[in-house]
Design brief:
Elements (H helix, E strand, L loop, with lengths): L1 H4 L2 H5 L7 H4 L22 H13 L3 H13 L7 H12 L4 H13 L7 H13 L3 H11 L4 H27 L13
Helix pairs in contact: 4-5, 5-6, 6-7, 7-8, 7-9, 8-9, 8-10
Amino acid sequence: MKRFRNCLPALLLAWPLATLQAQSSNPLLISSEERCAFNRVDDASLPLALEQCQEIAEQGDLQALYEMGELYYRGQRVERDAATALIWFEQASVQGHAAAQYRLGLMHAQGDGVPRNLTQAYIILKMAAVNGEDAAMDASDNLALQMNEQELALSSQILGTLFRNYLNQLREEQLNPPVAAPVIPETP
């Protein structure tokens, strides 16, 4: 299914994960999912943590991209900035980060930092569900109750295209597996 995550950017264009620390009373345990440590640093260290996380995110780390989005979306340690959060969530979303897709879908559904677009919200939430975000399925089902027939038809058409493209990509990869580059032995 990971390959399917990469289909989203071509056609769309345009809750935080539970941490091990939260599950345990041991404050020394750190989730392998967390990259940025925003909740573990004091206010004086926050600028350095923010700088380091942004650097990791700009290198394409999906979890760091998501955490940057959450930081600005929630506005607990920095001023809330939905537009900045949207940018980070979009970057993580197009690479298949399910929690980022979920948050992005909700933002589109609510018109939070972006014009409200039920069709786009529905599609993004369905992608989040396919990629493993359980709450996204319920959210997309609830959203469908608010959509008119035309919006649902368009959403179904786009999702159908996404799935067909994904299946075609899988077939192509099965028929033409990638060939490893030949290893050229060094000559003495």
